[in-house]
Structure prediction request, 145 residues.
Amino acid sequence: MNRVLSEIEASKQADISKLQADARLEYTKVDAEKDRSLMELKARGKQESEKLRSENEKYARQVKAEAKVIVAENEAKAVEAIGAMEQKASGQLKVKRQYDLEQENVQTWMQLSNNSNVLISGESNSFAAQLFAAEQLAAIAKKHE
Prediction:
């Protein structure tokens, strides 16, 4: 009976060893499957990340290019507006400059007319003008004596 018990015990130990070996094998398979799945997930994640980054960069370049176009258009409009305003202002300034020049001429003639030492004579052969000029010259000469 000892022998039977020994055989049963040996059979039991063999079954336990087989179960343990099968469990280790199954564990190794599950562990390998887990590692494979993780690697696959990481690869897919990295691929998706690269795709999103690439799309993001493409979108950023596109937006920057569109912004540059808008800025260029606005700068061109600003240059046109400034040109139009300068053109309009130059016409108005021309009139003002002409007015200022005429005012200066009037002031000059007023100052000359108020100066008794200045003789203004025209190109006319008028006797009255010659008489006036002679009187003015005589008055000037008298003051300098």
Notes: Residues 86 and 92 are 10 Å apart (CA to CA). The chain has two domains: 2-114, 118-145.
